[in-house]
Amino acid sequence: MSTTLRMRRIALAAAGALALPLALSACSDGGDTSDRAAGTAKPEQETTSAAPAGDEPFGPACATVPKDGAGSFSGMAKAPVATAASNNPALSTLVSAVKKAGLVDTLNSSKNITVFAPTNDAFAKIPKADLDKVLNDKEQLTKILTYHVVGKKLTPQQLEKGSFDTLAKSKLTTSGSGESFKVNDSANVVCGNVATANATVYIVDSVLMPKM
């Protein structure tokens, strides 16, 4: 073998030996980059899996709701709205009015509705003679009660500035933010975002009156 050929073979072997660790180093760097990328993916997944806020009942009157039983928040969530309201002592006047108007089955069978439910104190603001007159006029009573019902579920965010069609075919308006909301600029939501089996309930401190 000539001296020139021998020198070429030695040079090629040296080049191959030098290239091998360089290639291994490049692969190792790529693996580290992949590991780092995988490591940063986990915190992002944890962030996106957090439960959304604002899905609990809110308001000062929520403190008076029983902690357990059929009248509690968990109990009301299992019953349709008219039945759920009948289990809440603070809504007994409303329940009596709903029965007089023959709306129990209508409310219980409706799907995905929102009910603005006046408390007993809200009805007490109406002079007794006027209230008795309304309670004994089924047509007028039905119009008033269905004015408190919107044909879709409303979230607190939707109440911030809203105008909604009611089952009485009249609009009501809502405004506010956080845990403070008004309906028609007059009634305050005192316990809101209460879930029943077929409705979302916002308990209010005044009876809403449609235009007759």
**Which class best fits the helix and strand makeup?**
alpha+beta
Strand line-up in the sheet with most strands: 2-1-7-6-5-4-3
Reported for the largest beta sheet, the result is: 7 strands, mixed
Q: What is the gyration radius calculated from CA atoms?
A: 33 Å
Strand count: 7
Give average pLDDT, whole number. 82
Instruction: List SSEs in N-to-C order.
Output: HHHHHEHHHEHEEEEE
Relative strand content:
15-25%
Comma- or semicolon-separated keywords:
alpha+beta, disordered N terminus, single chain, 212 residues, globular, 9 helices, seven-stranded mixed beta sheet
Quick gist of this model?
This protein is of the alpha+beta class. It has helices at 3-48, 73-76, 81-86, 92-100, 104-109, 120-124, 128-135, 138-146, 156-159, and strands spanning 113-118, 149-150, 161-165, 171-177, 180-183, 187-195, 199-204.
Q: In words, what does this structure look like?
A:
- This protein has helices spanning 3-48, 73-76, 81-86, 92-100, 104-109, 120-124, 128-135, 138-146, 156-159; strands at 113-118, 149-150, 161-165, 171-177, 180-183, 187-195, 199-204.
- The termini are far apart.
- The chain has 212 residues and is an alpha+beta fold.
- Strands 2-1-7-6-5-4-3 form a 7-stranded mixed beta sheet.
- It is built from 9 helices and 7 strands, in the order αααααβαααβαβββββ.
- β6 and β7 (199-204) form a beta hairpin.
Write the layout of secondary structure elements.
Blueprint: H1 3-48, H2 73-76, H3 81-86, H4 92-100, H5 104-109, E1 113-118, H6 120-124, H7 128-135, H8 138-146, E2 149-150, H9 156-159, E3 161-165, E4 171-177, E5 180-183, E6 187-195, E7 199-204
Parallel strand pairs: 1-7
Antiparallel strand pairs: 1-2, 3-4, 4-5, 5-6, 6-7
